Amino acid sequence: MSALKLTLLQTRTYWHDPAANRAHFESLLAQLADPGDLVVLPEMFTTGFTMDSAAQAEPVDGTTSRWLQDLAVRYRTTLCGSVVIRDGSAHYNRLLWAGPDRSLQHYDKRHRFRMAGEHEHYAAGTTRQVFTVNGVRVCPLICYDLRFPVWSRNLDDYDLLLYVANWPAARRLAWQRLLPARAVENISYVAAVNVIGIDGNGVTYAGGSGVWGPSGAALAQAGAAECSLQLTLDLGALQRDRAAFPAHLDRDGFSLHTDSGSIVGTQDPTECS
């Protein structure tokens, strides 16, 4: 059966300083004896959680995109994390997914954190993505997406639900409750990487990155210090759990729509009325 060696890099970020952040994450990678199959960096890892999208955005093929591709090739791994990206006339909180073959895919954050004004500075993504590493299907989402279980609903299309975040310490209880809940309801692994420290807006972050199994039990969990959290996920064990407790066979069906009314995803459409 397939297995995935996962590395979560929990650390502080330097406010509005992409070069310093790239250097810092590159040094963390260099310290790993084996980065594994998938290395996960936090949300907006080059800038911190900024609303200054116009000034901080990089082009689609910008410095950070090429840097991720170079590291993926060098370490023979897949790297991901979100970056402020300008695509056409819009700005996105975009998760970049760089493979060891220099491929570059992306997921745009669907749910923008309106309490910080993110919906005023970034366009919303419209498509949920699933990428595959070592035969393990990974659905990457970003921070505030965690609060919306419809968007993360497992359609039998992923094995690992992955979140990158800047989740404040003031709301750590929601983080601690929702992540294992997503694992249970989707009968999947869930992994999440958060930041630590205080950002340029004075917001405090307390880490809490981790990995949860389909029972909701924590398989690995970080505190509030900088760390590289590593764990190998066993796809065979997950498949046995699903076979032993196939609650997904009793799920309800429904369709998803954008504000404009166009369908962006369908969940068991034959069951919908």
Report on the architecture of this protein.
- The chain is built from six helices and 17 strands.
- It has 273 residues and is an alpha/beta fold.
- Helix 3 links the parallel strand 3 (58-59) and strand 4 (78-87).
- The protein has helices at 18-30, 53-56, 63-75, 118-121, 172-186, 235-244, and strands at 3-10, 38-40, 58-59, 78-87, 90-98, 104-108, 131-133, 136-142, 160-164, 189-193, 196-198, 204-206, 210-212, 218-221, 227-234, 254-257, 263-267.
- The longest helix is centred in the middle third of the chain and has 15 residues, at 172-186.
- The chain is globular.
- Strands 1, 2, 3, 4, 5, 6 and 15 form a seven-stranded mixed β-sheet that branches. The chain has a six-stranded mixed β-sheet with strand order 7-8-9-10-13-14, with helices on one face.
- 22% of the residues lie in helices and 32% in strands.
Distance between the termini: 38 Å
Number of helices: 6
Largest sheet data? 7 strands, mixed
What sort of overall outline do the alpha carbons produce when their principal axes are compared? globular
Q: Mean of the pLDDT scores?
A: 94
Report the C-alpha radius of gyration, rounded.
18 Å
**Helical content (DSSP H or I, runs of 4+):** 10-25%
Order of helices and strands: EHEHEHEEEHEEEHEEEEEEHEE
Question: What structural category do the secondary elements indicate?
Answer: alpha/beta
Low-confidence residue ranges? 269-273
Q: Would you report the number of β strands?
A: 17
What fraction of residues sit in β-strands?
Answer: 25-35%
